[in-house]
Design goal:
The chain is mostly beta strands. The chain has one domain. 6% of the residues lie in helices and 25% in strands. The protein has one helix and four strands; from the N terminus they run ββββα. The protein has a four-stranded antiparallel beta sheet, with no helix packed on it. The protein starts with 7 loop residues before the first strand and ends in a 7-residue tail after the last helix.
Length: 105
Amino acid sequence: MANVNKLGALWRTNSQNPKAPAGKGQLEIDGKVIKIVLWKNSYKTEDRHPDYIIERDVPREGYTTATATTPKGGDFHAPSATRQEPQEPNPFEKAAREFEDEIPY
């Protein structure tokens, strides 16, 4: 029996690059798999600030990404598939490319 409370899984990255995410993973909500990235909160100045920030993994233009698949039954394993699946259009993606600042949320 699958764990009904499990929403997803994260894998730590082993990159030495300080700009690399702390982890990558996926969530499955209502049968839909959403790829996510985990970033260390570099703006943390107080204990009440979060240690990590979770964002939807949106492919950047000019980069090719492999899509992980979730086996039937919802059990998450290490990403193994390399096929491309169409991504839903993100209405904020264009605005994010046009406007960037150093202010967190």
